[in-house]
Task: structure prediction
Amino acid sequence: MVSDHLAGHHVVVVDDDERLLALPPMTASVPPMTASVPPKSTVGSPRTTGETPAAWLAPHGAVRPPIAPARWWRRSSLVARFTVVSLPLILGVGLLAAQVVAAQLRSIALSVEAEAVADTVESRIEGMLRPEDLQRPLSTQRMAEIDSMVNERAMGADTVGVSLWRGDGVVNYSTDSSSVGRSGKSDDMLALALAGEPSKEIKPRSEVSLTLAKGTGDVMEVYVPLRLGGPKVVGSFETYRDLAEVQNRITAVRRAMFLALGGGLAVLFVALLFVVRGASRQLRRQSDELALFGARQEVTRLQTEFVGVVSHELRTPLTALVGFSELLLAEDVPDSDRREWTTLLHNGAQRLRHLVEQLLDVSRIDHARLELRRGPVSVAEATEQALHSIAALPHGLEISQRFEPDLPPVLADHEKLVQILTNLVSNAVKYSPDGGQITIDARRLGSRVRIEVTDQGLGLPRHELDSIFDRFHRVDDERRRTIEGTGLGLYITRQLVEMHGGTVTVHSLGKGHGSTFTVVLPATEEEPNNA
Result:
């Protein structure tokens, strides 16, 4: 059960997807409607006009534009935001890490391959060479011996070529006999090896100057320094390794690494997603608790405000009623005083009746029990009745009327239109303590009629314009504190106008510049009834 004091107020809640929703104005428990007018939420809606939603929204300036990214972001859930942000980020980081790890893996694999070549040369080749093999050209017999040794000890599945370099940078032996005697003084990798530093280089097969045994892929040239048991480098043993098999091993390891990394990132994302969902649910629960707490606070505030306003408005007339009735009962009062006191008693009772009627109107509006009996109503006649219900004007205050010739009647409840105009005019009178001019202007605007009530009174601060029609709202300044009022008149006026399918707005340039209240109601070509 929603408290009566929350009726008409908007509440923000969070749905199951953590989206903020603005619920329509809340009402107390509503009995079956007896009003002859559709509820406020269906007046002029597609259900009553028979139009499609888009056709109905367009002339009202309410067509919703496509949801912009920023607006979608504000309306999306926490889990959706996390997915949009984290998934590309995790994928990007994963791909970058995979590329870095793959490059490092290739470098390590090639280094291991080069070290294996160097170990083979040192353990199986270097001990079989003689110092003179690296000092002068080889004889035919020695060339054949070295060739036999190389084929037996160095050549294999991955080794596709060998060269033996002298210390002066000349090839003294090669599996490609055409390379013997070639100078390598411009080869930087050879220079490093002759300086005592093992070196390696990856080349496409097309850039290798040696005729290789087999294969079509890239080749790694490994230069191993040769010391032949002494401290000084006397030459270099160059091995050409086919990288096809190495690349296959690297690819297999990289694939396994990618699968492991992808699986790890997926597990990380799912784990974070569960954490975020848990946090989102906790936030939703806290949001629900805050919304409930805020609703309770609003109920408390409205109850306190209601008690304060009603108590203040009841105190003065009740004091007058009790005081003067006691005087009338206790003493023999002259007729002149009796008449004056009776008038004061009547005025106090009228104030009490007006307050009760306002409270009853608010209750009927909030419970959708207020009936409208619509028909063509003359604005001029309704204005005259409203002016008759207003007490004598203060000194220096005048009311003028300006009605457009042939002004059509409005489609309204005659009594409620009089009440609307009475509220607006009495409001203008009340807040014009220094006198001035009040103007009631009525003109036709297409299929509608615009009624303006303009005064030269206290005016309104700009920040009050949006809340002036709220229930119990009164502008808090020094001059207004002495003016009686409940803060319900303008609230009732707005509700009645909107029930008629119209609008009410206020304009003011600020304090001391007066105010203009504008009511727009649907017109009709029917002749007005005699009220």
User: Anything to note?
Assistant: Residues 1-49, 52-63 have pLDDT under 50 and may be disordered. The two ends are 40 Å apart (CA to CA).
